[in-house]
Each structure stands twice: as structure tokens, then as C-alpha cells.
Hints:
Strand 8 and strand 9 form a beta hairpin. The chain has helices at 18-37, 39-54, 90-102, and strands spanning 59-61, 64-66, 105-113, 121-129, 138-144, 153-156, 165-169, 173-181, 186-193, 202-203. The protein has a 4-stranded mixed β-sheet with strand order 7-4-3-10, with no helix packed on it. Strands 6-5-8-9 form a 4-stranded antiparallel β-sheet, with no helix packed on it. A two-stranded antiparallel ribbon has the order 1-2. The N and C termini lie far apart (103 Å). The chain is of the alpha+beta class. Among the domains are: 18-59; 104-203, YEATS domain (Immunoglobulin-like, Sandwich), CATH 2.60.40.1970.
Amino acid sequence: MKYTLCEKPIEVTSNFPWDKLFPDILWIAFWLLLLLIFWKLIKGTTENLSNRLKHGSGVKIGSFELPGLKVSAGSEIQNQHFQTSKDDGVMDKIRSDLYKNLKCAMTVHKIFKSQKDGQLYDILIYQIPHKGSNLIQVVSVDYYFGHMWDKKVFTTTDRSNGFAIATSAYGPFLCLTKINFNDGQSTTEYRYIDFEMGDVAAMTKQKGEEK
């Protein structure tokens, strides 16, 4: 049996339209590269927007505006929506005992619009004395914010600065404050770090900025 060689090779052709598909592949690659480059910015913006909506903050993009959750005197809050009665002495005693146990050291806080990525507000938490009192009896204050701060306890002994501590957050949280006195005793106070005054919160001052 003899085999013969073809004088002319058989040409194998393809009907797949590579010339038309190639520009589309380039465009897809371009957009994927762009997404990769700006992924952190897109992710941070999306998270910030999600957090603002979740916590009732307003959002404005161009002419589109979504107002935040607001409770105000104009929200049909009238005196007839609650009733009054005379305290039988129980609540007054609780209030007086709180003043006594805290030795008139009160936990307060201020919020500032944050300039940190992914955060809504910078928060300053500190102690102030009730009217007619002082903080001379306080030696240190322990602050605890929970698992989002790795369950750390932050202790300050700076009486001259109101035992202040600063942090940042994208949502309200419960602050547990342990106030330690110079007689060896301590008491615990709770404060909900809310963002209700967010609409009028000032911006955080940068380092070196004039006061």
C-alpha cells in the first residue's frame, strides 16, 4: 500500500470572529483594571453610605437628597402625648443616690464630623463635676467601649483634662465608665454615645490649626 503526500497543505480556517471580539476583551480588561485600582475608594464610599443610612443620617448626592431620621419639636411632639403624675419619693431617691454614688462626677461627650475613612464621627468623652462640686476626689477613670475596640479598657489619670479620652466610630455605642475615687472606692456609670447632634457637629481640628 502506498501513501501519497498532498502537494498543497490543507488550510484550516476558523469562523470565530476574533477581530470583532478583541476590542470588547480590551474594554472588559480596562474596566476590571480600573475597578481594581479604585476598589478601596469604592468600598470605603459604599460602607460609609451604608452606615449613614443604617444610622439615620442624611445623604445628598447632587440634586438627590435623602433626609435622615429626625426627632424635633416640629415632629408633632405635643404635651398631650404624655401624662404627669406625682413621684412617691422612689424616683427622687434613685436620682439622689446616683448623685451620691457618683460623687457628682458626670460622664459627658462631644462629637465631631470625622475626617477618617470609614468613620462618621470623632468622639471626645470626659468627666465634668455637677454644679457646686469638683473632680478632686477622682484619681482615675476607666472607659470600656466593647468588642469593636478589642474589649480593651482605657484608663486615664489626667484630671486637668477632665479625664478625657478620644475615639472614632461609624455608629453609636454604649460607654461603660468606671470612676475611681481617692478613698479607694469606685462606681460605674453608663452613657450611650449617640449621634443625635450630628447635624450640627463641628469638624475635627487638624494638628497645628489655629483654635
